[in-house]
Protein backbone atom coordinates (compact mmCIF):
# COMPACT_ATOMS: atom_id res chain seq x y z
CA UNK A 1 0.00 0.00 0.00
CA UNK A 2 1.30 3.43 -0.99
CA UNK A 3 0.06 6.73 0.37
CA UNK A 4 0.90 10.01 -1.31
CA UNK A 5 0.52 13.49 0.18
CA UNK A 6 1.05 16.58 -1.96
CA UNK A 7 1.93 20.04 -0.70
CA UNK A 8 3.22 23.34 -1.99
CA UNK A 9 0.34 24.51 -4.12
CA UNK A 10 -1.09 27.98 -3.91
CA UNK A 11 -1.46 31.25 -5.74
CA UNK A 12 1.24 32.59 -8.03
CA UNK A 13 1.49 35.39 -10.55
CA UNK A 14 2.31 34.90 -14.21
CA UNK A 15 6.04 34.39 -14.49
CA UNK A 16 6.35 33.26 -10.90
CA UNK A 17 7.47 29.98 -9.40
CA UNK A 18 6.12 27.28 -7.11
CA UNK A 19 7.61 24.06 -5.83
CA UNK A 20 5.34 21.11 -5.25
CA UNK A 21 6.30 18.23 -2.98
CA UNK A 22 4.92 14.72 -2.73
CA UNK A 23 5.62 12.61 0.35
CA UNK A 24 5.26 8.87 -0.17
CA UNK A 25 4.90 6.04 2.30
CA UNK A 26 5.33 2.33 1.74
CA UNK A 27 8.09 0.04 0.67
CA UNK A 28 10.14 -0.15 -2.52
CA UNK A 29 9.70 3.56 -3.28
CA UNK A 30 12.89 3.68 -5.31
CA UNK A 31 11.48 1.18 -7.78
CA UNK A 32 8.29 3.13 -8.46
CA UNK A 33 7.71 5.37 -11.42
CA UNK A 34 6.48 8.71 -10.09
CA UNK A 35 4.48 11.34 -11.89
CA UNK A 36 2.78 14.67 -11.54
CA UNK A 37 -0.58 15.12 -13.24
CA UNK A 38 -2.87 18.11 -13.32
CA UNK A 39 -6.54 18.68 -13.93
CA UNK A 40 -7.82 22.06 -14.99
CA UNK A 41 -11.47 22.97 -14.44
CA UNK A 42 -13.64 21.24 -17.01
CA UNK A 43 -10.73 19.29 -18.49
CA UNK A 44 -9.36 15.79 -18.22
CA UNK A 45 -6.43 14.95 -16.00
CA UNK A 46 -3.17 15.12 -17.94
CA UNK A 47 0.41 14.04 -17.36
CA UNK A 48 2.73 16.93 -16.58
CA UNK A 49 5.99 15.13 -15.80
CA UNK A 50 7.24 11.72 -14.78
CA UNK A 51 10.42 10.19 -13.42
CA UNK A 52 11.51 6.56 -13.25
CA UNK A 53 13.26 4.94 -10.33
CA UNK A 54 16.49 5.38 -12.25
CA UNK A 55 15.91 9.09 -12.79
CA UNK A 56 14.76 9.18 -16.40
CA UNK A 57 12.37 12.08 -16.87
CA UNK A 58 9.58 12.88 -19.28
CA UNK A 59 7.65 16.13 -19.70
CA UNK A 60 4.53 17.34 -21.43
CA UNK A 61 5.44 19.65 -24.30
CA UNK A 62 3.57 22.49 -22.60
CA UNK A 63 5.90 22.50 -19.59
CA UNK A 64 9.26 21.58 -21.13
CA UNK A 65 12.04 23.99 -20.15
CA UNK A 66 9.83 25.46 -17.40
CA UNK A 67 9.15 22.57 -15.01
CA UNK A 68 11.60 20.13 -13.43
CA UNK A 69 10.68 16.88 -11.73
CA UNK A 70 13.07 15.30 -9.25
CA UNK A 71 13.05 12.67 -6.54
CA UNK A 72 14.88 11.85 -3.33
CA UNK A 73 14.60 8.11 -2.79
CA UNK A 74 16.13 8.26 0.69
CA UNK A 75 13.42 10.66 1.83
CA UNK A 76 10.67 9.09 -0.33
CA UNK A 77 9.93 12.48 -1.84
CA UNK A 78 9.13 13.72 -5.33
CA UNK A 79 9.27 17.37 -6.32
CA UNK A 80 8.00 19.51 -9.15
CA UNK A 81 9.76 22.84 -9.58
CA UNK A 82 7.55 25.10 -11.66
CA UNK A 83 9.04 28.25 -13.14
CA UNK A 84 7.74 30.85 -15.59
CA UNK A 85 4.20 29.97 -14.60
CA UNK A 86 1.34 30.75 -16.97
CA UNK A 87 -2.41 31.06 -16.30
CA UNK A 88 -2.90 27.82 -18.26
CA UNK A 89 -0.88 26.01 -15.59
CA UNK A 90 -3.80 26.51 -13.21
CA UNK A 91 -5.33 23.31 -11.90
CA UNK A 92 -5.18 20.67 -9.23
CA UNK A 93 -1.85 18.84 -9.26
CA UNK A 94 -1.79 15.18 -8.32
CA UNK A 95 1.09 12.93 -7.43
CA UNK A 96 1.02 9.41 -8.87
CA UNK A 97 3.08 6.31 -8.27
CA UNK A 98 3.15 3.00 -10.06
CA UNK A 99 5.54 0.09 -10.22
CA UNK A 100 6.86 -0.53 -13.74
CA UNK A 101 5.20 -3.95 -13.86
CA UNK A 102 2.22 -4.66 -16.16
CA UNK A 103 -1.01 -4.74 -14.22
CA UNK A 104 0.39 -2.97 -11.16
CA UNK A 105 -1.88 -0.74 -9.15
CA UNK A 106 -1.62 3.03 -9.63
CA UNK A 107 -1.73 5.22 -6.52
CA UNK A 108 -2.89 8.82 -6.29
CA UNK A 109 -2.67 11.61 -3.77
CA UNK A 110 -5.56 13.94 -3.05
CA UNK A 111 -4.01 16.80 -4.99
CA UNK A 112 -2.83 20.32 -4.31
CA UNK A 113 -4.38 23.32 -6.10
CA UNK A 114 -2.33 25.76 -8.14
CA UNK A 115 -3.74 29.06 -9.36
CA UNK A 116 -1.76 31.34 -11.64
CA UNK A 117 -3.14 34.83 -11.99
CA UNK A 118 -2.61 36.94 -15.08
User: Mean pLDDT across all residues, rounded?
Assistant: 96
**What Rg, in angstroms, do the CA atoms define?**
14 Å
Contiguous runs where pLDDT drops below 50 for at least 5 residues: none
Number of strands: 11
Strand content: over 45%
Which word captures the global form?
globular
**DSSP helical segment count:** 0
Describe this structure as you would to a colleague.
With 118 residues, the protein is mainly beta. It has no helices and eleven strands. 0% of the residues lie in helices and 53% in strands. Strands 2, 4, 5, 6, 9, 10 and 11 form a seven-stranded mixed beta sheet that branches. Strands 1-3-8-7 form a four-stranded antiparallel beta sheet, with no helix packed on it. The N and C termini lie far apart (40 Å).
List the defining traits of the structure above:
118 residues, 4-stranded antiparallel sheet, 11 strands, globular
Summarize the structure.
It contains no helices and eleven strands.
Walk me through the topology.
Elements: E1 3-7, E2 10-13, E3 18-25, E4 33-39, E5 46-51, E6 57-59, E7 67-72, E8 77-82, E9 91-98, E10 106-108, E11 112-117
Parallel strand pairs: 2-11
Antiparallel strand pairs: 1-3, 3-8, 4-5, 4-9, 5-6, 7-8, 9-10, 9-11
